[in-house]
Amino acid sequence: MQENTKAALLMAATALIWSSGGLAIKLVELNPMALTGVRSLLSALTLAALFRGRLDFSLSGARVGAALGYAGLLITNVAATKLTTSANAILLAYTAPVYVALLAPFFLGEKTRRADWAFIAVVLGGMVLFFLDRLSPTGLWGNLVAIGTGISYACFTLCMRAQRCSSPVESVILGHGITALAGLPFLAQGLPDASGWLGLAYLGVLQQGVSLALYVWAIRRLGALEAILIMTLEPIFNPVWVALGYGEVPGPWAVAGGVVVVGAVTLRGVAGAVRGTREAQ
After folding, report:
1. pTM of the entire structure?
2. Torsion angle, CA of 75/56/215/239, rounded to 10 degrees?
3. What's the average pLDDT block by block, 10 residues per block, for the chain (281 residues)?
4. How many other C-beta atoms can be found within 10 angstroms of the C-beta atom of residue 271?
5. CA–CA separation, 44 vs 50, rounded Å?
6. What is the rounded CA–CA span in Å between residue 99 and residue 97?
7. Which long-range contacts (CB under 8 A, 24 or more apart) does 246-249 make?
8. Under a CB-based contact definition with an 8 Å cutoff, are residues 41 and 176 in contact?
9. Is residue 261 within 8 Å of residue 124, measured between CB atoms?
């Protein structure tokens, strides 16, 4: 199996594991900051164990940027999932390819083509549809926080890709460390029950620990835009698990916006793959 193909398959597996996070977060009754703090502590310990003896925490701009981007992603995603529907939280996060396409030429030297601007316009149009559903004030804030998740996700992807010639796992562990420091003090507001601790263990060890070991291996072998396109499996399956396990169904405008965003991102990925095949021939 070619290394690029293996990387794409592992990135897809990561996306499917990540897609279970929305349901697990909904089911754990805990302050959002405390939840993300405990999850990150468990994730950092899991990754440190998996990569023991191979870690180098010397700092660079890309490493610090990825850590801060990842911490922002973790905190805003949990907050948005608690404040709005899981579908809105995850689908608005996947506006990240817009920011990647805009910034990759400047930070990575990876060219953004003219067709990408049409893609960006369509995705932005899809974003607008999320705000046409009837929203409570909390839901509105949840949507706005979810846009922050997309920006953080793009920064994380760009900075991780910038470390393709070195080990990026340290950035992930540092990001989890920052998140744990920010979130753990909120445990003073109350502890979860036994089922909550089981949910946190799943979120920390598997959903954010083992899966990220797969991610950091794959991201070094895939382009930034290619990687984030594969990860669109996450927003497709995330609302499905939540609907089946929690009974939360997104509104019609959110569904329409999700179709537009995921459809545009997917078509952009297919077009890029076809173009790459033709150029290789």
Report:
1. 0.76
2. -10
3. 81 90 90 94 94 83 90 92 83 77 73 72 75 67 89 87 74 93 94 93 94 84 74 79 84 80 72 60 56
4. 14
5. 10
6. 5
7. 246/23, 246/26, 246/27, 246/86, 248/26, 248/85, 248/86, 248/87
8. yes
9. no
